[in-house]
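>> received
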Amino acid sequence: MKVKEVADLVGVSVRTLHHYDDIGLLVPEETTDSGYRLYSDDSLEILQQILFFRELGFPLKKIKEIINSPSFDRKEALELHHRMLLEKRSQLDTMIGTIEKTIQHIKGEIRMTNKEKFEGFDFSHNPYEQEAREQWGDEAVDKANHKVGNLSKAEQKAIPETMNAIYKKLAPLRNGLPDSVESQAAIEEWYVLLNQMGSYSLDAFRGLGQLYVDDERFTQNIDAFGEGLAKFMRDAMAVYADKNQK
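>> returned
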């Protein structure tokens, strides 16, 4: 199957499959002289594994390590996926029940306790934290967690709103020059905000910008404010880091 046929069958983008090939996660069975990527049934089985891991929040780097390991067993992996998805379904069922009860509560049909209003929510696991620890080390992540923990509840609540406001400020600039005065002023706000939550050197700031493009989850979230914004931020962050290096 050609890449477009696989994309249509599975429901992923051609861009995603190209990215998987570029990073060595899912290499086509062969590439023709004309440059067409061809995928076999074995390729589709590997892709299924990848997508199961992605659904469960595994980073691409970790997925590559797992499926390329000599000890990788597809059956064991499927059994793991099954257990984890059952746990996820259980949590979702609980949250659906909480929504249904809340609707009844609003209608005056039942009365919920404050504890019942939050059943099903689980903030004990940050899916990005392990990746951050692998990239920047435990000390940096622990410092960031401590820094955020010392913020007031009002300050913590304001962070997502401030992030969105900066995204919206950057979005109209994304088709211009990343080194313009306006672009650099907005990206400086981003740098200041990040350092309210953690401790980012200029090199780490530049590296984070690259991650916005390398990790499709970041790209999708950022590009929701405007297609191409992730790449623009990467370039603007690199310019900012270079200009402010002593």
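>> The two ends are 52 Å apart (CA to CA).
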